[in-house]
Write a structure and sequence with these properties.
This protein is α/β, with parallel strands linked by helices and about 475 residues long. It is about 40% helix and about 15% strand. The chain has 2 domains: about 325 residues, UDP-N-acetylmuramoyl-L-alanine:D-glutamate ligase (3-Layer(aba) Sandwich); about 150 residues, Alpha-Beta Complex (Protein-Tyrosine Phosphatase, Chain A). The protein has an 8-stranded mixed β-sheet with strand order 4-3-2-5-1-6-7-8, sandwiched between helices. Strands 12-13-17-14-15-16 form a 6-stranded mixed β-sheet. Strands 9-10-11 form a 3-stranded antiparallel β-sheet. α3 crosses α9, α11 runs parallel beside α12 and α12 crosses α13. The two termini are about 15 Å apart.
């Protein structure tokens, strides 16, 4: 093992030794002190801040791709990761190289130690990574950072940044132990990322979620743009490898956009991302510095219009065509078709089931499920049951993963025992699902049976590695 790889492994171990990201102790004190010691790197560039229950990462990736297509140098902070911790911090669309990831840690670590000594609780895993991300973006430097909330909003470590644009994807019940047990309470927590004078881009929300979001926007004087009223999906149709869209933005309409992702929910994510970039790009719609100063090497050829003409349609078309979303209804193998998905709550599973039904139309769908024990597992199973023919329950390597036998008991109550098989190891579960799909395909013909591996980001990430999905071999070396 090379010296660089050895050091990366040491850094990862030191970060992982901290309080895990799901063990929330609400406070911005620790991360604020760290940021101050680092020179407040979160203030060195404008930020597009994204929260919601589902769709955050996909929306963040689309937003970053659109911004990069405009000639801006971008930072992207997302969570959780699929295969490598480095995925969380990207510059210009690429995860930090191992050497740069180690350098970011080495820059932040001495200050983190000072914070740890001063505070009742040490910085958590997520707080430290947040500090590393902002430091890396400042050092690059980037022209704009797209930042996904880790959990919630108000008390999330990323909320030390004042987003010029706040994007709220659909809100549903999840993480109720930390965010509240009603949609209204969760929305109130997530509304905290809407800052004074910002532009708030709101996906369609339930009445319970919309109320707190609109109240917060009114309180801080934010500009609000709502899907279905100010922007949205005009038309969508299936296409080979994805879908074709027509989107109405805040400042223009964009047609014949190919999005290489499946599902109506991804079309909505695309509309939100487009609106966010339009708002960011127009000084009439958002505060902050939408483009680099004149003469900056990354400055686009000409300024965007302040509203009415929209973004360049060819630029938007090219950007969406290049979007990727690993682990989001991602086809990783064919014959039989194997799809990996990160759905981990009932709302997410509902849209995934709808998308699989629409895009693939399998005669038989075999699902492999490994899910965290702290989720609404029965609700997840209920969304799967009408679509999934046979279910192979298993567990991933995470400490929170529900025991396969316990999951099988819950699944039998929803599916019936004859449709459920328990296999403790994920690799063996994939083999068992392949055998079931092959058996079904013999009577259905090519493409008649498919496999969906789902239940959590950890499940999706480990399945991608086992199946050799794009990028996993390079990430295994950690030096790409």
């Amino acid at each position: 093992m090379s010296t660089a790889l050895t050091r990366l492994r040491e850094v990862e171990a030191e970060i992982l030794a901290r309080r895990p990201e799901h063990a929330i102790v609400p406070s911005l004190e620790r991360i604020s002190v760290l940021a101050t010691l680092l020179g407040d790197p979160e203030r060195t560039c404008p930020v597009i801040h994204i929260t919601g229950t589902n769709g955050k990462t996909s929306t963040a990736r689309m937003t970053e791709t659109l911004l990069r297509a405009r000639g801006l140098r971008t930072g992207l902070f997302t969570s959780p990761h699929l295969s490598s911790m480095r995925e969380r911090i990207c510059i210009d669309g690429e995860p930090l190289p191992a050497e740069d990831f180690v350098a970011a840690y080495d820059e932040v670590a001495p200050y983190a130690a000072m914070v740890d000594a001063q505070q009742p609780l040490r910085l958590s895993f997520f707080e430290l990574l947040t500090g590393m991300a902002f430091a890396a973006f400042a050092d690059a430097p980037v022209d704009v950072a797209v930042v996904e909330v880790g959990l919630g909003g108000t008390w999330d470590a990323t909320n030390i940044a004042d987003g010029a644009v706040a994007v709220i994807t659909p809100i549903a019940l999840d993480h109720t132990a930390y965010l509240g047990d009603t949609v209204e309470a969760i929305a109130t927590e997530k509304a905290g990322i809407i800052k004074p004078g910002a532009a708030a881009i709101l996906a369609i929300q339930s009445a319970d979620a919309a109320g707190p979001l609109l109240r917060r926007a009114a309180e801080v004087g934010a500009t609000v743009a709502r899907e279905g009223e100010d922007f949205g999906v005009v038309d969508r149709e299936l296409a080979v490898g994805g879908q074709r869209l027509a989107l109405r933005g805040l400042t223009g309409t964009y047609s014949d956009l190919f999005l290489p992702l499946f599902g109506e929910h991804q079309a909505v994510n695309a509309a939100c991302a487009l609106a966010a970039v339009e708002a960011f790009s127009s000084p009439v719609l958002a505060r902050g510095s939408p483009v680099p100063p004149e003469g900056h090497p990354q400055a686009p050829d000409g300024p965007e219009p302040p509203g009415g003409d929209g973004l360049d349609e060819d630029l938007v078309r090219e950007a969406f065509q290049g979007v990727t979303a690993p682990g989001r209804l991602e086809v990783v193998r064919r014959s039989p078709v194997m799809i990996v998905d990160s759905a981990h709550n009932p709302a997410g599973m509902a849209v995934s089931m709808a998308a699989v039904t629409e895009a693939f139309g399998f005669g038989t769908l075999v699902a492999v499920l490994a899910v965290s024990a702290d989720k609404d597992v029965t609700g997840i199973l209920a969304e799967m049951e009408p679509v999934v023919t046979s279910l192979v329950v298993t567990q991933n390597s995470a400490a929170r993963s529900m025991d396969a036998d316990e999951l099988a008991g819950l699944a039998a109550g929803v599916f019936g025992p004859d449709r459920v098989v328990a296999v403790p190891r994920l690799d063996d579960a994939i083999e068992a699902a392949t055998a079931l799909a092959d058996e079904a395909a013999a009577g259905l013909g090519p493409g008649g049976a498919g496999i969906l591996i789902t239940g959590s980001t950890t499940t999706a990430g480990q399945a991608r590695t086992l199946l050799g999905a794009p990028g996993t071999r390079e990430q295994a070396g950690e030096l790409s």
